Amino acid sequence: MREFDFELALCAHLEREGHLVSRQLGGAVHGRRVLDTVVVEPGPEFEERAAITAERLPTAAIESDVGPGRARYWKDAFDCHPDRAERAVELAVERGFFERERRGGRTYVRQTTRYPDWVGEIVAIENKPDLGRPGDLESQLRTDVSLALADRVVLATASYVTGAHLNRIPDEVGVWRFDADSGTIDVRRKATPLPTDDTGVELLEEGPVRTDVRIVDSAEKARARRKLAERAYGKGWRSFDYPACDHCSPDSDGSPYCQWKDRAVRESDECGPDCGGYEAADPPAVDGDSLRAERTPWRADPDGRRRRQSGLDRFG
């Protein structure tokens, strides 16, 4: 089974169970690491987060000194490049997290609500349907465990899992054998909770005679976890384009199933005139947001927390 097909099938299965699922997200602090699948479990104030916006809230806005009390001059509230701050203000206003007003030719902003404690457990899943072709699997999983950005790390595979396989990956990593046809998960090994509140060690580059690492303190990890969770919340897992082909017939989960190839296909690299089964057509219309809202606590169209006060939102 191809990794893309496997990944979408697993995401759909987890979503049907009510989990908030996303895919292909940056899972590093200083290095380069892309997490195949990320599951974010709701924390104590999830409903407050869901009520603000269905989209990602900008990191700079969350980390700014803007609060829900007295409005502040926007340039005094950010500790970053002015261009980044200005973009964060625009997005935060657009998405209902900030409101703004003008005083004496200056823009002042405040939060519509305080940023909630909405993130519970974060699970990072590495998808490797064929363990006979592991690639950099061991190094990737060691990095995830030593950094401990996610609360748990899991390897998902379609292969038969042997003791030799288990011995080659860190003991902390859980192992799932996922059968896409039956939609069942056989937990071969439970994942050990990782010390997300402690200092982590991030593997940056590994060579035959030298390994470069960087220490990541708890504050850096907390910011990176919040950023990862926000991206997962806003992106979801249906972050692909549907092929403009008559053979594309999305399944009930919204996966881009191809009738000609009898599997899900990635539009960007295996669809088009070069494909023997290609028949030009409009891309199918799929309401992935409705599917996600039906199956998970995520809200597609929340009411928002924007207050209606004199002088506010006149320049939104």
Automatic annotation (TrEMBL):
Pfam families: DUF5787 (PF19100)
Composition skew (Basic and acidic residues), residue ranges: 289-304
Region (Disordered): 269-316
Superkingdom, natural source: Archaea
Name of the protein this chain belongs to: Uncharacterized protein
